[in-house]
Design a protein that fits this description.
With 152 residues, the chain is an alpha+beta fold. It is built from 4 helices and 6 strands. Pfam families: SnoaL.
Length: 152
């Protein structure tokens, strides 16, 4: 019976290492792409056939479209910053709970620049396969976002 447990322990340690690697990959996205505003890193982290459904319903596919989409956010919120508050990994899924901050200095989803500072929570559900981000589902607190942008 003990002989049967040894392979399970080895498999468990490999799985834990994979989970940690997946979390580190997602953390790099926030550190280098978002906070570092380095869109070139997308090619190192995201699969060519990457897929996402944005909060506004827009479907974003591929690295180039992701780069353009994030560029839009960077022009609307030049000081956009995401602080990872929690990372949870299970199988191919990584869930990140982040604090999003920034000042709206450009047009954003039809809203003219307000120069208002926002601070909201956002959850990202990310699928990682073979060390590539293949899918992401951003789930921001849109109520708080629009409330802060429209506050007088």
């Amino acid at each position: 019976m003990n002989a049967e447990l040894k392979p399970m322990k080895a498999s468990f340690s490999i799985v834990v290492a994979d989970l940690e690697a997946n979390k580190q990959l997602v953390q790099r996205h926030f550190n280098e792409v978002i906070n570092g505003k380095n869109l070139d890193v997308i090619a190192q982290l995201f699969a060519e056939d990457f897929y996402s459904v944005a909060p506004n319903g827009k479907i974003v596919t591929g690295r180039e479209n992701l780069s353009n989409y994030l560029g839009y956010f960077f022009s609307a919120f030049p000081d956009l910053h995401m602080t990872v508050e929690e990372l949870i990994a299970e199988n191919e899924t990584v869930v990140a709970r982040v604090r999003v901050t920034g000042t709206q200095q450009g047009e954003f989803w039809g809203i003219a620049p307000t120069n208002k500072f926002i601070s909201i929570q956002e959850v990202f559900i990310v699928k990682v396969v073979n060390n590539w981000v293949v899918e992401a589902r951003p789930l921001p607190d849109l109520h708080s976002l629009f409330q802060q942008l429209s506050a007088h």
